[in-house]
Amino acid sequence: MDLNPRKLRILRAIVDEYILSGAPVGSKVLSQNPSFKLSSATIRNEMADLEDLGYLEQPHTSAGRVPSDKAYRLYVNNMMQRSNLTEDEVKVMSAYCQNKVKGLDAVMRETASVLSNITHYTALVMMPESGTNRLRHLQLVPLAEGYALVVVVTDAGVARDSVIHVPADMGADELDRISRSISQRYYNCRMVEVGERMTREMAMELQERGTFLTDLVDTMESAPGANAHRIALSGANNMLDYPAYSDIDRARQLLAAVEKKDSMYRLLKNAGPFEICVKIGSELGQDIFSDCSLVTATYRIGSMPVGTMGVIGPTRMPYGKVVSVLDYMSKSLGSILTNLLEED
Amino acid sequence: MDLNPRKLRILRAIVDEYILSGAPVGSKVLSQNPSFKLSSATIRNEMADLEDLGYLEQPHTSAGRVPSDKAYRLYVNNMMQRSNLTEDEVKVMSAYCQNKVKGLDAVMRETASVLSNITHYTALVMMPESGTNRLRHLQLVPLAEGYALVVVVTDAGVARDSVIHVPADMGADELDRISRSISQRYYNCRMVEVGERMTREMAMELQERGTFLTDLVDTMESAPGANAHRIALSGANNMLDYPAYSDIDRARQLLAAVEKKDSMYRLLKNAGPFEICVKIGSELGQDIFSDCSLVTATYRIGSMPVGTMGVIGPTRMPYGKVVSVLDYMSKSLGSILTNLLEED
DNA sequence: CTTTAGCACTCCGTTCCTTTGAGTGCTAAT
DNA sequence: ATTAGCACTCAAAGGAACGGAGTGCTAAAG
Known about the structure:
Two copies of one chain form a homodimer. Chain A is of the alpha+beta class. Chain A has 14 helices and ten strands. Chain A has a five-stranded antiparallel beta sheet, with helices on both faces. In chain A, helix 6 packs antiparallel against helix 14 (319-341) and helix 8 runs antiparallel to helix 10 (211-225). The N and C termini of chain A lie far apart (54 Å). The interface between A and B is large, with 36 and 35 residues. The structure holds a DNA duplex.
């Protein structure tokens, strides 16, 4: 089923042209391309073959051909070449977030924003999910009687706030004592360990205090994971640009789909921790995205992959460009995070 | 320029009908309404008058009439009656957020979400801007050398995180000492005061420490104000439902406009701290919203107004319903916040 | 055996025209 | 003052005609 070189060249030209123009491409335009010394008739024959092989589709009998998902797959695997980034693009990407120190949330949001601005598609950035965050500080702040605010600070610089019940007789002093004790005892422990160690080592107190400490452990365990399943989303509107065959209904559905963050999270997660991954149309496994592609890249803290970012747009996106951008941005975000967080 | 009772009745019927159907209303449908014992001809005459007076508009010579902004204004001021909420609606609105204790952010987000779900329009909820938040705790957490994370906890249960520079020689102990000292000294002070008092009372240290303390003061001052200018937005997509005369371009512009949060913030702010306020079309002062209306309500903590929530949708929205919903929700949010925060 | 020129055919998108029907304004009768 | 009646307007929907881009096939040329 392998294609001869000429078929490959033609297929590639078709994909390139279609990505550029968005209109079905006919044999004539290709034959006019000086790099082919073939008549349109010859090209037509080849195109017919390519269609039989499942690489091309015809919207209507008398229209040009459009690449199928299979063609894009081949294109991305074997033909695509990363495009060089323009100076402007590099400038934008390298400038962002560089000079100011910011919270993790802000960094992620800005990353997504830059991504969507440069690509003009919708950008998704998964929060880092390092089980390796280390505890910096725990503070229980008394609220109304029976409630306390739990502030967990990790080296990820994130202070997530949530509220737990505490025994009514537990005063501010007691809460402070506990905070300090836990902070000291588990200082610099990875969050994944803190939970188990607390359950183990504080078994005695655990029983005395009823549910309080177990609640606290739960809260703390989910604290670094509070980032889990969270993503930053930017440029959802860009979805509206795309359906050129635009009926507003489809646009609405797309928008709605994109804004379901947990479903988007799964999409990113499914793409796996590969350096760069491209999922095309049907490969995404969701009808609504059947003519969308998702390009993802994994970013690292130090050498450990901790999250995925991606861009979702029409299948006819300029893959070379998008891949280059994601490659750059994932490394950029990685180094920002690494600088920001890791000085263990 | 006052209208006789019959004109009023007719105008009202037109507005009601148009809000319901969305199509220009003609004289015939009105004459069929049994509550008028008039022929369509008579009604036509009245409608012509109403048009001359600026209450009605004709999309085309031979179409029915459509209410003008002026008509909506009259309607809202004098004719509209709040509609009763359905059981289901009340159930949804009273159930939300009630059983779980959550952070402020989550409460605001859910409020917006409920609002947009019930009304099917776009909901905006301004973060509470009480200058009355009181300091609970300040914690400086050392990060990399020269950086510290500032965690400010107020009785609003919010821990906002931001990073400041600190002198390189300032260690964890020193930071801890400062944290504790400030926390104690200004415990339960209103945040608006903390800033000035610190600048005043710590003038000496201020000079020694260079920019560190001024940075800290800035950060703390903006901490409760970090909520300022922030809004929760929900249901922006619903904008797409609305332009029935839907060209996708206009939809895009609307979406883009709605997602400019600072501009939306100003809109809410401009509506002022009234119990309920309705701005119709041109009254919003933005061309893009010329056929939208904004209904806002103010919510309170205790008896003090601290924020505004609103719903933005087409001018032909069912005002009675929307006003009822906003009235209910603003009170509901108010009591949630009051319970959550105020036990001074 | 491969390539190409030529031709008939298909079908989409556009334009232009007609029809339809809802709605109006005006006039004359009640 | 109200209403019936009528001529008029205009947007929206339907349909015919056309142009054009593109195809598939066949037969000739290389």
